[in-house]
Specification:
A hairpin with a 3-residue loop joins strand 3 and strand 4. The chain has a 4-stranded antiparallel sheet with strand order 3-4-5-6, with no helix packed on it. The chain starts with 12 loop residues before the first helix and ends with a strand. The mean pLDDT is about 80. The chain is elongated and about 75 Å long. Helices cover about 35% and strands about 20% of the residues. Helix 4 runs antiparallel to helix 5. The chain is an alpha+beta fold.
């Protein structure tokens, strides 16, 4: 089931019970004022999903890795940290280093994040695959974490080991 409106709470428990999905996807971004996905909705999805551990896949949660790192900037911050911590550094210099570090940390903290997750769902009616892209390629070379299900007439879809 795809969640309504980027994970807002605009869904009833009765509806969730009637649909009884075993997996949910929530498509949401960042830098918004709506608090999506709603934490209370994520809890409700887990409570009303099918089985002991229904899947809740959220683009914002699954894909929020840094897009790039500025190694020179990080090295400069580490060097400033050392100078600030060093008791031999004069107090006036320490204060200047603190100001520079704060400016650099602000620069580093600016939007430098991949914010839109990659979740995919594929089915042929008898088999179902739900996957999300890994933040870093796994040692095995895998780029996706995958859940696979097969159709079972008694239970609808069941996980494939």
């Amino acid at each position: 089931m795809k969640s309504c409106h980027h994970g807002s709470a605009d869904v009833t428990d009765e509806f969730l019970d009637a649909v009884n999905p075993f997996a949910f996807t929530v498509s949401s971004g960042d830098q918004e004022s709506h608090v999506h996905p709603r934490p209370d909705l994520l809890g409700r999805l887990g409570r009303h999903g099918r089985g002991r551990a229904p899947l809740v896949l959220c683009t914002e949660i699954l894909r929020s890795g840094r897009e790039r790192e500025d190694d020179k900037l990080l090295q400069r911050i580490r060097k400033l940290d050392g100078l600030i911590e060093n008791p031999a550094t004069p107090a006036t210099e320490r204060e200047e280093h603190r100001k520079e570090r704060a400016t650099l940390q602000t620069t580093l903290g600016r939007r430098n994040v991949e914010v839109y997750g990659a979740i995919t769902l594929r089915t042929d009616g008898r088999h179902l695959v739900i996957a999300f892209r890994l933040e870093k390629q796994a040692g095995s070379g895998r780029r996706w974490h995958t859940y696979t299900f097969r159709d079972d007439p008694a239970q609808r879809f069941v996980p494939v080991a």
